[in-house]
């Protein structure tokens, strides 16, 4: 049985359905079993969508993933992040590498034909965001909420037979020490990009010129002093922009990410100047230099230099409640602004605090520049959460249709994690999604859905179920595992989105019924 809840003020339609009572409260028990059918993973799954286990051997807390090679219509591999805190599985795991030392996996690769899972990188802490680049590398980032030293790593060839271990991550902007399985220096294969700010990375986009836009997954008041801002949105512009016509790079020293300048988003409440502060979360904005002119560093406790969150706060960056995933809208184009891009990012919020989160979208007029001019970027709310659709986390634009799929970051206190499908903004008067429906709800109340990713043709999607209680399953390579699910059956075709227009017409024509006044204009 479906219920209808319409938000007249926002133009968003949320379709919900009555679900079994056991979806409300789930005890944290060992849910997974080796003989479990894939259908047992769901409380709800839309008719016409088929689910299968693609792998039950990916590392525990497999999260975001990306297809390899970059831009391929028929990719050969998946490369994914393991969102786990750094730990030692065997050996001494000291500062000096000893053959046999084994840290938890951080980046894994899956062959799409054989489904074999191999570990590529060990030694990151809470690997979360991962993307490929037009110049032929993989970017993996850390959402380090333990030591707050989240970094960016660039990998030259994810299909190498070597395995790399990060022995020393390096505090702040210091370099990392990375070796291969024999203990040999591996900086020619994987390197920490120290030009980037130190933040809690999750979602980010990599533009074809090498520009990177990323969010800092931080909530307000979560570090000293207690009255602190949430996470900001950052823009890294390389010193030398990448020219896609040059093709793929042969070595990491050819990457555009070697050096650059970082800016932060500052939203204004005016149209002619940067009047910023609390209350100015949407509207005209500008990219402000992260480090003010003439300053070379930002000092924090114990004399450590950290160019990241503290610098953003000092620069007056706009803060959000945990900016998580962030993606470029592949359907957006503006003939009047050929260098403009639209990107959307999830602001997760806190369900228990009645802050249900939202998805914000921004149009950056020229992604390769940051002038500090009011209005060079415009930010607005696209989807607002509620008790049913709560705590948006991962995002995925479906190719061809532009439908935005939103994965909830729900724990046991909020219920089982859902995935929602949200229409683009149609030809109506607002700038919001024209409506969202639930695609699926997972059955394990101790788990979370993560890393939703569509195939290039949009007909299939992959996502992981991060099980927090799975003691019944065997270890693989001395480490716990999770389930990677493949969904198929999506019908993909270009659509005319007139849903919002039809809703507006109905409200206009039946104004007496809904508002108590007539539909016609009485002024001649």
Q: Would you kindly provide a brief summary of this structure?
A:
By secondary structure, the protein is mainly β.
Topology, element by element:
Blueprint: E1 2-7, E2 12-17, E3 42-45, E4 50-59, E5 62-68, E6 77-82, E7 88-90, E8 102-103, E9 105-111, E10 117-122, E11 127-132, E12 138-142, E13 152-155, E14 164-168, E15 177-179, E16 190-192, E17 201-206, E18 212-216, E19 233-238, E20 260-267, E21 283-289, H1 309-315, E22 323-328, E23 341-347, E24 358-364, E25 377-384, E26 392-397, E27 404-408, E28 418-422, E29 436-442, E30 447-454, E31 460-467, E32 481-488, H2 499-509, H3 511-515
Parallel strand pairs: 2-29, 10-14
Antiparallel strand pairs: 1-2, 3-29, 4-32, 5-6, 6-9, 7-8, 9-10, 11-12, 12-13, 13-16, 14-15, 17-18, 18-19, 19-20, 20-21, 21-25, 22-23, 23-24, 24-25, 26-27, 27-28, 28-29, 30-31, 31-32
Protein described:
The structure is a single chain. Helices cover 4% and strands 36% of the residues. By secondary structure, it is mainly β. The strands form 6 sheets. The chain has a 9-stranded antiparallel β-sheet, covered by helices on one side. Strands 1, 2, 3, 26, 27, 28 and 29 form a 7-stranded mixed β-sheet that branches. β5 and β6 (77-82) form a beta hairpin. It is globular, with a radius of gyration of 23 Å. It starts with a strand and ends in a 9-residue tail after the last helix. Mean pLDDT is 88; it is low at 1-12, 18-26 and 299-305.
